[in-house]
UniProtKB/TrEMBL annotation:
GO molecular function: alanyl aminopeptidase activity
Family: Belongs to the peptidase M1 family.
Start and end residues of each Peptidase M1 alanyl aminopeptidase Ig-like fold domain: 447-550
Gene transcribed to yield this protein: pepN
UniProt protein name: Aminopeptidase N
CDD domains linked: M1_APN
Domain Peptidase M1 alanyl aminopeptidase C-terminal: 555-876
Organism: Halomonas dongshanensis
Record-linked Pfam families: DUF3458, DUF3458_C, Peptidase_M1, Peptidase_M1_N
Domain Peptidase M1 membrane alanine aminopeptidase residues, every copy: 229-442
Keywords on record: Aminopeptidase, Hydrolase, Metal-binding, Metalloprotease, Protease, Zinc
Domain Aminopeptidase N-like N-terminal: start-end pairs: 106-189
Reactions accelerated catalytically: Release of an N-terminal amino acid, Xaa-|-Yaa- from a peptide, amide or arylamide. Xaa is preferably Ala, but may be most amino acids including Pro (slow action). When a terminal hydrophobic residue is followed by a prolyl residue, the two may be released as an intact Xaa-Pro dipeptide
Cofactor(s) of this protein: Zn(2+)
Enzyme nomenclature, EC number: 3.4.11.2
Length: 876
């Protein structure tokens, strides 16, 4: 029972009234900010002349409303659910309103709120309606002029989108700055920041010779943590010019770091607002991973200036239009400036774990959903990451050169407009002549397609017959699926030569590395002139977001691991080989049979460890076993304990058998260089730290000494964090406890380091993890109001599989308690934290019952739309 109603794509109507220009004045006060708005409005030519005017508005106290200068009284308008309505308005008019809002009470972190004493905004998707009455939808685009008035002492810095055009002093210790943004934008790209902020400034000259001022605004103590973000920004600006011909379009580009933020960052026009975790780095406080994340998020938000801002979404069903495309762009950027194969491996490993799980669960939805209750729930791995995979397939299908022409056409044709996914795909079809009709199903069908592949070599005719059969499992609301157009990149690796064989298909040569197009439910591809028996290397570089099953033998996988010319598939062969061994061990554990390590895996690892490899980051990936979460994804029914036991057994067996090799790898990859987040250094640290983890898995004395020494050396956070993690996750409490204490005291002043300190403790495999969570929730550095803290402590614990899934149900109960509290404070974060509980169908009966019980307990509360929607789906 609830009044949370879904919105449907089918019901889209263009807005009856447009805003051409918006003027806002903010008189800032924590409990009573006054927002005055002046909107120049026009009726849509196709709207009826008696179409009422509806403006969104939530959590607003209306002070006054005037139409063309005439004050309206309560008979002239109606306050309705979610906004206000005026029955009749002229064709063109000016609407003025004054409202009051309370940023200090805003714990949802949507609209105007306070973070560490400063004011900031988050308007995507529907936060602007918490600031003023407005047609808060992306297809209403206006130019903005914004005046921010604040206390001179508390808010010396007053920022908004665009360029500052006027500033001055006011009575009572107050001052103001006026900003103008000449580019029409939807309300979701509005931003305002005010507070005691400090800037680091730099410059960039665009390809056409315009000088742009770049500023990163932070709290004073973080001034030394901006260099990497600034360098990343400049690289991204150059890359977008070189790769997409896209130039920045204002004189000023600002980034602000805030401590309380629901997501990673936000692409507001000219004024990007970042979660401090997504922008601040320092060798002593941030790991290599954090450095790389900052680089990619800075680039992502910058790239939105074109893919999102200049061309935006018609409605929120089109969210992946900007997000899928922009993630694809940031992935390509990171691949270009770092190690490309490692970037792909990392992205796919994450994708196959987390997005596959989403696509297989009760909240599965297409890349373009057709209905939602709360759009905030749809900022998902499917919209972002699967959306990016779909754009990548498009690019590969038509070729990079056509893709560039298609994107040029898209940006030119739709500049300043709010458009749809069809508009984007139509540009790609137009420039390439490709028929993308069937391809569009990727946007409409949820669920991960599975391909069963089978191959046969005919010695007599020198033919290789490859049969592929596709099926997409049913997902909620979509019982039947149609076949998709799936590009399968492949090679045939000769078992004698170890080389890629030439591919000839229906008389046509595909070179040695080609793409076949699976469009039917089942198709057989006959390769001719195949001189020797091959092992097929399928789905190279993960050419489509599918699960591919092929009955590889372990020998064939070991062969691909060393001979495949595709780096991604070499890695994947190793993962498949490890999975086969893990499957046996999971079965052994369940049946109470003694576990025996597969010597083929040991020998494959020995070969990896003894063969020099250029890209050390790739080696680190190849030496890393599939995660427990990924292994779980592969099982029909998740046995949490068996998976953990099997994986630990493999880790320990490998470490015991290859102890000397791991030791040598560790010793050979020490570096005295000053820290730099370069691909070479990162690769070296990764491989060294993987080796250390193996040594710590078997309690090796030398390994332990190295681990302690690495912690004490205190060289950089990557090494320190790894050492501390390994100590805390070991049984050596007498070493772990003082190290944790020292670390916690040293970094008590730095929230981002304390987040890591929390995570390290609650991810330990020992059975006291849950008690540690309970204890740490009382720690002065913890707060349920700060999303980073919630993620670092509660979110991280929910990833600690053996402990979260404790059979006494305490892990689930703890999460439910947190969700119930967050449902009141911050519905967006509450709904996200709920995710692990929604996957109950995957577990055994006892756990299913406990997880459902936790969900039912949440359901009994008065729920926000966010949590309501997720709970309804989870319990449907
Ligand atoms: N557009 C941003 C993501 C974002 C979405 C919603 C937010 O608040 C509820 C914040 C950020 C991006 O893709 O980076
Ligand atoms: Zn984005």
């Amino acid at each position: 029972m609830s009044d949370h109603q879904p919105v449907h794509l089918q019901e889209y109507q263009p807005p009856a009234y447009q805003v051409s220009h918006t003027e806002l004045t903010f008189d800032l006060d924590p409990a009573a900010t006054r927002v005055s708005a002046r909107l120049d409005m026009t009726r849509h030519p196709e709207a009826a002349s008696d179409a009422p005017l509806f403006l969104h508005g939530e959590y607003l106290t209306l002070h006054s409303l005037a139409l063309d200068g005439t004050v309206l009284d309560e008979g002239d308008y109606r306050l309705v659910e979610g906004g206000l309505e005026i029955a009749r308005v002229p064709e063109r008019f000016v609407l003025e309103s004054v409202v009051e809002i309370a940023p200090c009470e805003n714990t949802a972190l949507e609209g105007l709120y306070q973070s560490s004493g400063m004011y900031c905004t988050q308007c995507e998707a529907e936060g602007f309606r918490r600031i003023t009455y407005y047609p808060d939808r992306p297809d209403v685009m206006a130019t903005f002029k914004v005046t921010v008035i604040g206390d001179k002492a508390k808010s010396p810095v007053l920022l908004a989108n665009g360029n500052p055009v006027e500033r001055g002093e006011l009575d009572g210790g107050r001052h103001f700055v006026t900003w103008e943004d000449p580019h029409p934008k939807p309300s979701y790209l509005f931003a305002l920041v005010a507070g005691e902020l400090y800037k680091v400034e730099d410059g960039f000259t665009t390809q056409s010779g315009r000088d742009v001022t770049l500023q990163i605004w932070v709290e004073e103590e973080n001034l030394d943590k901006t260099a990497h973000a600034m360098a990343s920004l400049k690289r991204a600006m150059r890359w977008d010019e070189e790769t997409y011909g896209r130039e920045y379009d204002l004189d000023l580009f600002m980034i602000v770091a805030v401590n309380d933020f629901n997501m990673g960052a936000m692409e507001n026009k000219g004024l990007n607002i970042f979660n401090s975790a997504a922008v601040l780095t320092h060798p002593h406080t941030a790991t290599d991973q954090a450095f790389q994340r900052v680089e990619s998020i800075v680039a992502h938000e910058y790239f939105h200036n074109w893919s999102g801002n200049r061309v935006t979404c018609r409605d929120w069903f089109q969210l992946s239009l900007k997000e899928g495309f922009t993630v694809f762009r940031d992935q390509c950027f990171s691949a270009d400036v770092n190690s490309a194969p490692v970037k792909r491996i990392e992205d796919v490993a994450f994708f196959r774990t987390a997005q596959f799980a989403e696509d297989a669960g009760p909240t599965a939805h297409p890349v373009r959903p057709d209905h939602y209750i709360e759009i905030t729930n749809f900022y998902t791995l499917t919209i972002y990451e699967k959306g990016a995979e779909v754009v990548r397939m498009l690019c590969n299908l038509i070729g990079a050169e056509a893709f560039r022409r298609g994107s040029d056409l898209y940006f030119e044709r739709f500049d300043g407009q709010a458009v749809t996914i069809e508009d984007f795909v139509a540009c790609m079809a137009e420039v390439s002549g490709a028929d993308l009709t069937q391809f569009m199903r990727w946007y409409a069908q949820a669920g991960t397609p599975e391909i069963d592949a089978y191959g046969e070599y005919d010695y007599v005719h020198g033919e290789y017959r490859l049969t592929l059969r596709q099926r997409t499992p049913a997902t909620p609301g979509q019982p039947f699926k149609k076949p998709l157009h799936i590009p399968v990149r492949l090679g045939l690796v000769g078992t004698k030569s170890g080389q890629d064989l030439r591919l000839t298909l229906a008389g046509e040569s595909l070179g040695t590395d080609g793409v076949i197009h699976l469009r039917e439910e089942e198709q057989t591809f006959v390769f001719t002139e195949v001189a020797e028996a091959p092992v097929p290397s399928l789905l190279r570089d993960f050419s489509a977001p599918v699960k591919l099953h092929f009955p590889y033998s372990r020998e064939e996988l070991a062969f691909l691991l060393t001979h495949d010319s595709d780096g991604f598939n070499r890695w994947d062969a190793g993962q498949r080989l490890a999975m086969l061994a893990l499957d046996d061990l999971i079965a052994a554990h369940r049946n109470g049979v003694e576990k025996v390590m597969d010597s083929r895996v040991v020998e494959a690892f020995r070969l990896l460890l003894t063969t020099p490899m250029e890209d050390k980051a790739v080696l680190a990936e190849m030496l890393t076993l599939p995660s427990e979460a990924y292994i779980a994804e592969q099982q029909p029914l998740v046995d949490v304990d068996a998976i953990h036991a099997a994986r630990e057994f493999v880790r320990q067996s490998l470490a015991l058998a290859l102890r000397d090799e791991f030791l040598a790898l560790y010793e050979d990859n020490q570096s005295q260089e000053a820290y730099a987040p370069t691909p070479e250094q990162i690769g070296q640290r990764s491989v060294k730290n993987v080796a250390l983890a193996y040594l710590m898995a078997i309690d090796d004395d030398q390994g332990l000494a190295y681990c302690q020494a690495q912690f004490d050396a205190n060289h950089n956070m990557t090494d320190v964090r790894q050492a501390l993690t390994l100590l805390v996750h070991s049984e050596h409490n007498h070493l772990a406890a003082p190290a944790l204490k020292a670390f916690g005291e040293k970094w008590a002043h730095d929230p981002l380091v304390m987040d890591q300190w929390f995570t390290i403790q609650v991810t330990r495999p020992q059975s006291d993890a849950l008690e540690r969570v309970e204890h740490l929730m009382q720690h002065p550095a913890f707060s349920l109001k700060n999303p980073n803290k919630v993620r670092a402590l509660i979110g991280a614990f929910a990833q600690n599989r053996i402990n979260f899934h404790r059979l006494d149900g305490k892990g689930y109960a703890l999460l439910a308690d947190v969700v119930i509290e967050l449902n009141r404070l911050n519905p967006d974060v509450a709904a996200r934290m709920l995710t692990p509980l929604t996957r109950w169908q995957r577990f055994d009966d006892a756990r299913q019952a406990l997880m459902r019980q936790a969900l039912e307990r949440i359901k009994a509360e008065p729920l926000s739309a966010n949590v309501y929607e997720v709970i309804e789906k989870a319990l449907a």
